[in-house]
């Protein structure tokens, strides 16, 4: 794999940058909503044109001479995106025409070393679009390209102009093909973006005490000690009853999709607020999706504590999130960086366990020893449960099929006992373990046994 060149999308608020990004990348990951300031952080999406793969980075709307709310941080994110790009696409609104803000951004872009291409968006009519685009020659950035982010018209001509900026494939640096996808989730204001910045050592996500600062699912590829990671910061997830249709609704959907495409999920909890019902619901979502997970207790530096606090806190967590007893817990401070880098070691461990496969012979040894110590239950009619054999049928998460005479003869306590035996004997730290109890007639078991003996 090669490290792909980056094209930055730049412009003032509400000119349709995210709509154009979705059109260029063929995705719907950038949130599009009729409200200024929806995009705040840098959002990277893969794209393809002719014979070349590249990344498109969406940025927030740039406003100069205004330091209210998140505007200074949005400008910083746009500047960082521009610094790593091979080309920039300056998006303007063809229906509105040139504005003073467009002229300010154009003047700033002329001072940058990166090539700039002018995309006049919202030109839905080909004939009218040429007239609309002609007004933007006055910005002094070369030929304006009329495009429509909604319909896709004109985007081919725009990409043809950008194409020569891509370096030859043979000159692109190599990238490690094996990477671990890590999603950071949690309630609003628990420190997810601060944790992402602490893990990467760069200011990738905007950090603010204002709830709902992060809206998109923010992807960032990094390398740590030879291992590549894709870290995904997500919007804070509130209770469903408090969510209204709009930007927050789309943000939370992006967060849930990020969980599905991850290998490992970091569930961030605020140490000052302990664990809430919403945290437990998020933990249940991770378990249902079958993802490896680490519980990260953030803001540990701000909590008054003694030598017993950490043990009492961990016991409280284990009692509340009992269904994720398999997940490791780490206490960190994203603000000071304490123990943050140790998260990488845990990520590698749980990712390996999530992908691990165990031979059928080893699984059956565990079953034989477990049933010898604790026999399967017997019904009132005197019929005893019997486990014939087991085999791992899949990974991510590890899934073991147990072939038994009758699944109904195995009650919940015995099933939990078998689950515990597998974990004690085989590990599987940090990952859910799925056990499938399948009924099987004795004759089929005998035939399978004979077949296996014949093969041997």
Automatic annotation (TrEMBL):
Positions binding GTP 1 in this chain are 11-18, 58-62, 121-124
- The chain positions of domain EngA-type G read 5-170, 180-355
Pfam families cross-referenced by the UniProt entry? KH_dom-like, MMR_HSR1
- Any one biological process term the GO annotation gives: ribosome biogenesis
Q: Which CDD domains match?
A: EngA1, EngA2
Presence of keyword Metal-binding: no
Signal peptide positions (record): none
The UniProt keywords, alphabetically, are: GTP-binding, Nucleotide-binding, Repeat, Ribosome biogenesis
Q: Under the GO molecular function aspect, what terms does this record hold?
A: GTP binding; ribosome binding
Q: Which SUPFAM superfamilies match?
A: P-loop containing nucleoside triphosphate hydrolases
Residues annotated as binding GTP 2: 186-193, 233-237, 298-301
Tell me the NCBIfam families matching this sequence.
GTPase_EngA, small_GTP
Cited function: GTPase that plays an essential role in the late steps of ribosome biogenesis.
**Family designation:** Belongs to the TRAFAC class TrmE-Era-EngA-EngB-Septin-like GTPase superfamily. EngA (Der) GTPase family.
Complex formation = Associates with the 50S ribosomal subunit.
Question: What is the protein name for this chain?
Answer: GTPase Der
| Species assigned in the record | Euhalothece natronophila Z-M001
